[in-house]
Amino acid sequence: MPKPTFIKLPIDKKETLIRAAIKEFSRAPLFEASISNIIKEAGIPRGSFYQYFEDKEDLYYYLLDDSSKRLNKRFIAILIKHNGDLMETFIESFEMMLINLESIESRQFFRNAFLNMNYKSENTLTPGVSEEQLNTRLAEVVALVDRKKLNITDEMELIHVLKIMKAITIQNLIQVFAKDLSIDESLKNYTLEVNLLKKGLSKE
C-alpha cells in the first residue's frame, strides 16, 4: 500500500502517477512492467517513486485494491436496487464491468491482470469471502442479501454461495480476455451459468 508521502500528495500529482502506472501496466503485465517507464511518463525522479511506494508490486496492488473498492461500492448500489436479489445483482454487475472494459486502456490493464492472475491479485481485485473479512467490505454485502430468495440455511452457506459466484465471475472475465468475446456473448454465457445455479442442477 502507498506510503504516507503519496497519501499527502496533491490530487493532480497523485492522478499523474496513477495514469502513468495504468498506462505501463496496460502495456505489459506486472512482471514485465518497468518503473523507468512509469517515472518517465509521470515526470518524477526515481527517488520520488520510492518515497511513494516500496516497488512496482506495491503500486500495482494499490491500483487493484482501488478498483476492488469501486467495484464493491457499485455492487452494493446494484444490490440495493434489486432489493437484495443476489443473482440479479451479479448479472447486472458483470454487465457493467463489460461496458467499462470498452475503454482500450482499461481493457488492456485488466486483460494483463486477469490473464496473469495469481492468488494475491485474485483476492485483491475481487471482494474476499473469508470469515476474517466479514467485518469489512463483505459484511455490508451479506447484510443486504435477501436470503429468502436463496436456498440456504445460514450465513456460512451464503459465504459459500458468494465464493461460487466469485469463481464463476473470474472465470468468465478470463474468457472475455482469452477469447476476446463481445459484450453480448460474454453476458449470454455468464447469465446462462447464473441461471443454471438458480434452477439447481439435480432433479428430485
| Share of helix, binned | over 70%
Number of domains: 2
| Shape designation | elongated
SS field, number of helical segments: 11
Classify the secondary structure makeup into a structural class: mainly alpha
Q: How would you state the average pLDDT, rounded?
A: 89
Number of distinct beta strands: 0
Largest sheet: none
Structure description:
With 204 residues, the protein is mainly alpha-helical. It has 2 domains: 1-54, Homeodomain-like (Arc Repressor Mutant, subunit A, Orthogonal Bundle); 66-199. The protein is built from 11 helices and no strands. Helix 5 packs parallel to helix 9 and helix 10 (155-179) packs antiparallel against helix 11. The longest helix is centred in the middle third of the chain and has 26 residues, at 56-81. The protein is elongated, with a radius of gyration of 19 Å. It starts with a helix and ends in a 5-residue tail after the last helix. Mean pLDDT is 89; it is low at 126-131.
What is shown here, in short?
This is TetR/AcrR family transcriptional regulator. With 204 residues, the protein is an all-alpha fold.
Helices, strands, pairings?
Elements: H1 4-7, H2 11-27, H3 35-42, H4 46-52, H5 56-81, H6 86-100, H7 104-115, H8 119-125, H9 137-144, H10 155-179, H11 183-199
Helix pairs in contact: 2-3, 2-7, 5-6, 5-9, 6-11, 7-10, 10-11
What would the keywords be for this entry?
204 residues; 2 domains; Arc Repressor Mutant, subunit A; mainly alpha
